[in-house]
Amino acid sequence: MAIEKLPPQLANQIAAGEVVERPASVIKELVENSLDAGATRVDIEIDRGGSKLIRIRDNGAGIPKEELALALSRHATSKLKSLDDLEAIMSFGFRGEALASISSVSRLTLTSKTADQSEAWQAKAEGTEMAVQILPAAHPVGTTIDAVDLFFNTPARRRFLKSDKTEFTHIDEWLKRIALVRRDIHFTLKHNGKSVRNYRPANTETQYLQRLGQVCGKAFAETCLHINCNHNDLALTGYLQAPSSASGYAETQYFYVNGRLVKDRLVNHAVRQAFSEYADGVSPGYVLMLELDPYQVDVNVHPAKHEVRFHQSRYVHDYILQALQSAMLQSAELALAPQHE
Ligand code: ADP
Ligand code: MG
């Protein structure tokens, strides 16, 4: 066969294989874009587990009319200019692939208005060349993206979708993860026209414990230990299952590094080690947020960005271990302290 350049739609569909696995991954990409755009409220609406409709509406900065077509094209991003930026990336996005990928495997419309525009505009990319059409629309400042009929044109991938209920569960779980760390954001979720989640902004500790209860269950929220450790160049905050609770909370294990949820054996190991003195063998629950200099950690390890690499992993591990141990020791001392009359 002769060498030919792939038509844009096909190239995007191939790239979509990496980032768009199922409705939950579409929602992840779109909501992260809303957060990158400074939204304080994000409303998610899905029909049939997201396979029929995914709609994300935000009140972020919006996309200027003249950038709508670019936003839909591949390798177009407003978040990264050079390889140096990648070293210290703070935004969720940076590959400029999500919108192009999603729009190549669904019927996507993008509607947006910026504060200094008097009108809103709607864009969609169609056909193998992904030609972009732009029409006037009605929309407040912010952005709404509709992705309809996910994988309608890639039947092999469509067949991989599970039941609506399973797809919903993936979405719900992802929303929990983001709701725990973005306490400032009001998130709502509607499924088949029915409101199923409403995470109100949690700017005070009391409000946050409420959100923690919504996400991790009341029992966890009411008994957990608070972690708040901040010295040298690291800060670890969050919540740890009380060592006295009999069972583990294996489904409540959330670890964030600079606001990103990551899977990391390091933290699991540190938590288990801290627990081993009290309750050996349990898989404890935790919601922990680690903040450190972005130059001390690589986030660009994996396309889905679930993994990170610490430059000084031993140091980070020991820091977490000590923070947990001292919180546990403190709570044990409190429990043992003589009760004052
Ligand atoms: P990335 O997030 O990696 O930059 P995307 O394909 O997800 O790539 O988005 C492309 C660009 O479109 C973003 O860089 C941003 O400028 C713009 N954009 C996408 N979604 C939104 C949104 N909800 N609000 C404002 N701008 C957006
Ligand atoms: Mg993005």
Automatic annotation (TrEMBL):
One term of GO molecular function: endonuclease activity
Superkingdom as given in the UniProt entry: Bacteria
Keywords for the protein's UniProt record, in alphabetical order: DNA damage, DNA repair, Endonuclease, Hydrolase, Nuclease
Domain DNA mismatch repair protein S5, first and last residues per copy: 212-329
Keyword Nuclease: yes
Function, in words: This protein is involved in the repair of mismatches in DNA. It is required for dam-dependent methyl-directed DNA mismatch repair. May act as a 'molecular matchmaker', a protein that promotes the formation of a stable complex between two or more DNA-binding proteins in an ATP-dependent manner without itself being part of a final effector complex.
Record family assignment: Belongs to the DNA mismatch repair MutL/HexB family.
Protein name as annotated: DNA mismatch repair protein MutL
Source organism of the structure: Shewanella youngdeokensis
Residues represented out of the complete protein: 1 to 341 of 623
